[in-house]
Amino acid sequence: MENNLPISSRIREIYQQRFGTPACIVRSPGRINLIGEHTDYNMGFVLPAAIDKAIYVAIGKRDDGRIHLYAADLDRTYEGSLSDVHVSGQHWPVYILGVVQQLQKAGHKLAGFSAAILGDVPLGAGLSSSAALECATVFALNELFQLGLEKRNMVQLAQKAENEFVGLQCGIMDPFASVFGKKGQVIRLDCRSLEYAYMPFSTETYKIVLFDTGVKHSLASSEYNLRRQECEEGIRTIQKAYPQVRSLRDADISMVNECLQAGDPVVYKRCKYVVEEISRLQEACDDLVNNDLVAFGKKMFATHDGLSQLYQVSCPEADALVDMVRNRPEVPGARMMGGGFGGCTINIVQQDVIPGLVAIVEKDYKEKFGKELKTYIVNIDEGTTLVNI
Ligand code: GLA
To answer: Is residue 48 scored above 80 in pLDDT?
Structure first.
């Protein structure tokens, strides 16, 4: 399906060929996160942004109570019944069906629908293609059946779909960034209160460059869920001395040292990383306000080291990619991004050196790991929207 039309036009054509005229088309973007990793489910802060790579869902009603889906990228179809939402044999429909299930659980009346899906968010690269698809789906169903959902409900529903149907105990960051993204702005989100503020991120001198390790770790979701449990174990121990601590958000490094240092070294390392990261993000936001990308970037490297050594969610490829740019003044900051165990590193790179730097890193990566490195230069873009058709 390679042609030069924009994705919004292609998805319309694709839908038309299979199902007739779509009622609406929704675009929901992937996300980056500048700093604040594995802090969302610990009720801390994150600093994500939506990007100019998105999933598009074209949708229309059916009158037979059935769900017909077509994933254009994969050239795969799914057919099932609205009254018995389940998946067998293939994975991709879970993101859509998980949303359908959550809407029904919340008491919303749906009818049958057809949907076609197409996008340019690289899959499994840590850019939240799954949250983008879930958010596009909930937005599209909200529009199609006039459910009257607020954006915040949609975000929470997408997260629940991932937690309960897909089985990843993820936090709120990814769907929040996809839905609330704003062009040129990063979102400072308090994951406990869901209060948020936009902060400008100027890409005049510096651009955001993602290096994709190409590693898709099969343990990513089980290890992710395990990290959550390790944090919860740390909280339970801290609570014995400090009952007011409800999550790692409420703890500080002295509590972590006092209560956990003599215990399980793994739990100690995990909790140390999280409380350090939560305070690092707050200082990093001050750097952004002061327009000090050098100080901001140093914190990104510190985050990487914490994720790699204490939280242990990096991989040799991501570590090497960060080391390749570490001492270059034209790259003030870099780190692995997202859940970990593969995916991309995020790099802040001085615009005029990008082609030269990318060539060097691609060559070094090939030499070291014997595989091609994919590079994406991304811009910060709007969150989930209806596409004009
Ligand atoms: C994944 C999850 C998010 C978040 C990040 C790590 O992307 O979906 O909720 O926990 O990992 O920061």
So the answer is: yes
